[in-house]
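S.,

Sequence below, as promised.
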Amino acid sequence: GVAADGWDRFAPYGWLHLVTVCGCLAVIAGLVLAGRRLDEPYLARLRHSLGLFGIAYWLAYNIWWNRNGVDVATGLPLQICDINGVIAPLALFTLWRPLRATLYFWAFALTTQAFIQPALQYGPANPIFWWFWAQHTIILGYAVFDLAVLGFRPDWRDCGRACLAGAAYLAIVVPLDLWLGADYGYLGDLPAAKIPPFVAALGRWPARAIIVVALAAAAFAVIELPWRIAQRRNAARAPRATAI
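The prediction came back faster than expected:
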């Protein structure tokens, strides 16, 4: 909701959180409905336009965030959703399967957490509120668009691709976290008072970082299972050729 000091602060699980999430989902639904009404040439133009818009937005956000200078402990675009903010528009623009796979698993397993338990303190009176929700809506919206409009369907190889991308992320971010005293990816060795409560609840570092990684891997597997179940059901319902 909104704290007592007005629109300057954001607290999860209040009416402002609910209204904001509903607004973001409405934007995503509108994007999907528009895409499904278009013929292929116009759909390709929309897809390319979304890709260019996503890149432009990512650049604008990061330039604005670091307008007063770069704080290497907090200002580098190294959170998962910062990386996914680049992957999402590139996935739509190029239709390269490794990017689409990473977008699917990272968006639905990880970016969705920003809607469920947002690590946000600023309310609508602060531009950070709007940057935050717009960035995550772009990522999730593009992932939904890829499924519902462009017809992407992930398989276990795609899950492996997303895991490899995650392993590369870990190899870069964990050493940087320890070197800079940062918490990119919520994997750093920071006191509980300096990290989101839902991360602090996982215990002390390094066990906390290991649990974060394990939960992400488990979430990847969970969001792949519905597709495999549906594939088996469709195969079971398909008519079988009768031997002569």
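Helices lie at 15-36, 40-65, 80-94, 97-116, 127-148, 156-180, 197-200, 207-237.

Coffee later?
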